[in-house]
Amino acid sequence: MKKLLIPCCLVLLAGCVDKDYDKEIDMNVTIAENGITLPVGETDKFTLSKLIDTDDNLKINGDSIYYISESTDSKTEFAAMKSVIIDQSNGLAPEIEPTEIAIPEELEQAIELGIPYEGSIPLTLSADVPINPSQLKVSKDIERIDTIMFDSPKQATLTFTTELFEDQGPAEFSLLLSDMKVTLPQMLILSNTDKIGDTVLEETDDMGNPLVVRDHILYVPSKNAEDGIFSITLNIYGLCAGKIRPDGTNNFQLTPSTDDENILDIIDNEFVLNGDASVQLALKGPGTTLAAQTQVRTDFIIEELEITRVAGLIDASADESFSIEIGSMPDFLSGNDISLDLSNPFIKLNAANPMGIPVKAVLSIDPKNDKGVSLNPEPIVVDTIFIKQASYSESENRMIPSENHIYISQREPTNDWVDAEKKTFWLNDTLYTWAQGNLPGLLDTQIPSSLDATISASTDKSIEHIALLNNQPNDVTVDCNITVPMEFGENFAINFSEIEGGLDDIFSDVSVQEAAIIASYTTTLPLDLEFTINPLQEISAEEYNRLPSDEKLLDDDDEEYPEYYRILKNVGFEILNADQNGKGIITGTTDMSLVDPAPSMGKIVIRLTEKEKDALKSLTHLQYSVAGNLTKGLESGALRSTQYLQMKLSAKIAKIEVDIDSL
Fold this sequence. Notes:
Elements: H1 2-14, H2 19-22, E1 30-32, E2 35-42, E3 46-47, H3 48-51, E4 58-60, E5 66-78, E6 84-86, E7 99-100, H4 105-113, E8 117-130, E9 136-139, E10 142-167, E11 172-183, E12 188-189, E13 199-204, E14 210-214, E15 217-226, E16 229-240, E17 252-258, E18 261-266, E19 270-283, E20 289-302, E21 305-307, E22 309-314, E23 317-325, E24 346-353, E25 359-368, E26 380-387, E27 391-393, E28 398-400, E29 402-409, E30 424-427, E31 430-436, E32 450-459, E33 465-468, E34 474-485, E35 487-489, E36 493-500, H5 504-507, E37 510-523, E38 527-539, H6 541-545, E39 552-555, E40 563-567, E41 571-575, E42 584-586, E43 600-610, E44 621-630, E45 636-638, E46 644-658
Parallel strand pairs: 29-31
Antiparallel strand pairs: 1-2, 2-46, 3-46, 4-5, 5-34, 6-21, 7-20, 8-19, 9-18, 10-16, 10-20, 10-22, 11-15, 11-19, 12-16, 13-14, 14-15, 17-18, 22-33, 23-32, 24-29, 24-34, 25-26, 25-32, 27-28, 30-31, 35-45, 36-44, 37-43, 37-46, 38-40, 38-42, 38-44, 39-40, 41-43
């Protein structure tokens, strides 16, 4: 913006009018009673595209609006959750007492004599034993387990084994089960349907009908097992913790142990056996002896279970910090005494979540200047970010990360919602979800040099979700792009000061007691620009040190080579058509049309006078201070590359004395 005022308002004195025009300057002079008027020329249209260079971070969008765009990516690592093994050492196998077979006296005698015998020995099979695996170590992030899942079905085997003979000889026997009920542990998930306690088995009864389990109860109406052995195999798809109690617990009890572990104890599971049986036998001759212990042994064996997935409440959190570096900005946005009031910055987050748990994220952004000092008293916090969970693929046996596209801004980006309740909308063929955040607060005072950000992510433990216990950390990756269109609100204000030289070449050989600069302007900028002027003389450091304080001006932007100036109190500057504060004003347009906006037009007259003879000969530089505001009457405005300022310049000079020898 400084570049915009230099050539258009004051460059008449510095010889900065367009060089192409210099060749066609009208050298005719009009001698009037009050002085001489020189038509200096008319500038080209100084569009912002000529004055503001675009680069990697300052760009122009399809509506010709300038915008800042910076991107970075980050990775928030959630701690690994260890897999868990449940085996016999953890109490997975119940200890079921065998049922003794009472041998009739007649059978003992027949075996002793080696004579034929046929008979039936009645039995009652019963058992009621707990199956409660315990002392399992799980991750501390697991707050409640509702379901344990396996990558593939595991197997449990129920076996009835009859131990009758030491040497069987020519004898034959079988075990006949009738009206047998087996209540299986309630934790077992026996089906991959909603009815987890129901399943149909491959084994059949004596009528050839498949055995059926209903609500974890296996019923065997009649089964005659040759050689006294009968096995039933069940598929186990997972373990279920049962109903949640009023206090929030279930049958999977978790107890804190160490900093990174909880202890899991599974409770309230039983194996219950109740039914009639009989041993059918036939001796056909000698050679048979009884076993030392005649009994029917019942074994319920569950194979080793590796837990790789659980469903429940997961209370995990992680933090990740990153920084977005902001590149060079136009000079007029880089000052300290400004109020940007940028109306619509926005952030686009693209997040991938590999966990089966949704993540609530809080984005905290701290804008800092080039010295690393925070520009705001407090960071800007956006706490409405929700990152959806991954989905589990049964066919691929893995979690498929979800894609999350989140658009953060203060005002709604559209009213054309795909889903008004969820605030989803299409942007460049991508479906975004809108989250509200006070992003204009990032840029209240000035464009920062960097944005230091922290993403604090935590799992959503309000509802049940799936967690992988795969001993691997889970990385939630986030691509973050912040975009700041140069769209300003009504509180936009800029202030800056600049020193321009080259005036000694004009006045060194000409004595002028009074001069006026007349600038007629046409502009489509949506800015009211006010400016004031100070006349300066560049001097040495020694001369500077001898001046009174009210005549000193030091330019130490370059610390190695500071420049020293004397404020010329003997040269008067007056803006003839100034506002009530004595400032010149270029009034901006209020037409924000993209195509052919109506320009604003006006005129500024600046008068220079000598308070002492030849005072203007000391004039080497001008210091001008500019304040810019959004054009009065606008609530918002944007800087477009097509906006321009055009000036028509002339000078009116009175009482000229020329040193002929210098011409």
